[in-house]
Specification:
mainly alpha; 17 helices
Length: 461
């Protein structure tokens, strides 16, 4: 019984966990489902448009994770300030996020305007076995340029939503996301296929719908926050001053710089992995697009559990209750891995028919089904490493987090994929499986680091 209590929480514990996790799951789930429908709609237009949009989204992911990484340093402090009961500290962290987020948005717009075309072509160096590479690049570039209009509202939404979650408020971000994805879904149908008198714009229409939905999401979350300052206490006097104490700014930047660099390098690493895979042909680009889109749907609980670890463990550390932090973290990791086993099994069982909803070549569908089975088998491995990452991050160990995450990605995964794609004749399935299996090394590293307790650290008291 003692052993069970060590790894498995009480009903009250899981009620607390689910109160934080379920709104995030709903938010991410609806977003992922609408992204799937978006992907399918573009795929109905043709493989070239679907592949072009998928490549553009690989680049956009670097920006989005850059925002996540840029505000993550302040997020660590925000969760601990809230656990400590310091609302002024939470306001200061919000302002730091504001400065960093807008700076990254401006930099992202400039980089993609100047280098977007050449970056997209990096993914089109393999055989054009299922389409025209230049047409694919053109679709991707048009999509990318429209999406740039939504970079600022996306950044602002993440700044508000992250702060709300760190103060245990997950309902408002969920409502904002649901509203946005419903708007996106309706406008996708209108703009992609040309309904209600609008011209059929294909992938460009999907980009227009996404931009509109991002402004809607920002409006809902910002207006909702400032309408109820008595409920969302950090919002009171939030813009009365943009002052941030110099010592706090220095501490946040010291913790945050490795996280920003980590997310940029990690997302760039994911792009490099896909670039290596793409050398096996355009059919691989299309199949990986289907696989990654579906994976976002099945990984929603695992991703939400990472946020839950960051919030609950961070608050426990901020309150000074280190034993509760250790107990909470251990049980959350077990729960996350257990759920991922169930989700992976479900995904593997569905992998045969899911690609059938896409209007693409049979070879692409069959390849996507096989890649999904491989990805489904790797879910528990990735769940453990993901929870370990957020555990290390919650205690402010950002340099170790950087080495654990993006350091591993580039040193092991990217290097392995590059060598396999350039120096062997292995097919894409074998390559993909070996890269996924390499995460077992990361799990061992994560287990050692978490067990040693190096993350147990109060950084605000």
């Amino acid at each position: 019984m003692l052993k069970q209590n060590k790894w498995i929480g009480s009903r009250a514990f899981y009620a607390m966990v689910l109160s934080v996790t379920i709104p995030i799951v709903i938010q991410n789930g609806i977003t992922s489902f609408v992204n799937l429908l978006d992907n399918v709609m573009v795929g109905r237009v043709g493989t070239e448009q679907m592949s072009g949009v998928a490549i553009a989204n690989q680049l956009i992911m670097i920006f989005e994770l850059g925002i996540f990484g840029g505000i993550s340093g302040a997020s660590i402090f925000a969760a601990q300030f809230y656990g400590y009961g310091d609302m002024e500290g939470v306001r200061h962290t919000f302002r730091i996020k504001l400065f960093v987020g807008l700076a990254i948005a401006a930099a992202g717009i400039v980089v993609f305007l100047l280098f977007g075309d050449s970056l997209i072509h990096r993914f089109l160096q393999g055989d054009s076995d299922v389409g025209d590479a230049e047409a694919t690049a053109g679709y991707g570039l048009r999509y990318l340029r429209v999406i740039l209009i939504g970079f600022v509202p996306f950044s602002m939404t993440q700044i508000y939503a992250s702060t709300l979650k760190e103060t245990s408020e997950t309902i408002l971000p969920m409502k904002a996301s649901i509203t946005a994805v419903l708007v996106n879904l309706v406008l996708n149908y209108i703009f992609i296929f040309g309904k209600l008198g609008f011209p059929a714009m294909g992938g460009t229409g999907a980009a227009v719908a996404t931009v509109v939905s991002r402004y809607v999401e920002f409006g809902v979350v910002a207006i909702g926050t400032h309408r109820k300052p008595e409920k969302y206490r950090f919002a009171e006097g939030l813009y009365r001053s943009l002052y941030v104490p110099a010592d706090l700014l220095g501490r946040v930047m010291k913790k945050g710089a490795p996280l920003l660099l980590n997310e940029l390098l990690w997302s760039a690493g994911m792009a490099m992995l896909n670039q290596s895979y793409s050398l096996r042909g355009l059919s691989v680009v299309a199949a990986l697009n289907i696989t990654s889109t579906i994976s976002n749907l099945f990984y929603i609980v695992t991703m939400a559990m990472g946020n839950t670890v960051s919030i609950l463990v961070g608050q426990a550390l901020g309150s000074g209750d280190m034993e509760r932090a250790k107990d909470t973290d251990r049980k959350l990791i077990v729960f996350s891995v257990g759920v991922s086993v169930c989700m992976g099994l479900l995904w593997a069982l569905c992998s045969g028919w899911i690609p059938r909803i896409y209007n693409t070549k049979e070879t692409v569908r069959n390849l996507a089904s096989t890649l999904m089975i491989v990805a489904a088998c790797a879910m528990p491995i990735n769940a453990f490493s993901h929870a370990s990452y957020f555990t290390l991050r919650s205690g402010g160990k950002t340099i170790i987090t950087f080495l654990f995450d993006s350091g591993f990605t580039w040193a092991v995964a990217v290097t392995l994929a590059f060598c396999l794609s350039h120096f062997t004749a292995l097919n894409i399935v074998a390559m993909y499986a070996l890269v996924q299996a390499s995460n077992l090394i990361k799990c061992v590293m994560g287990y050692i680091l978490v067990k040693k307790g190096i993350w147990i650290n109060n950084i605000v008291a």
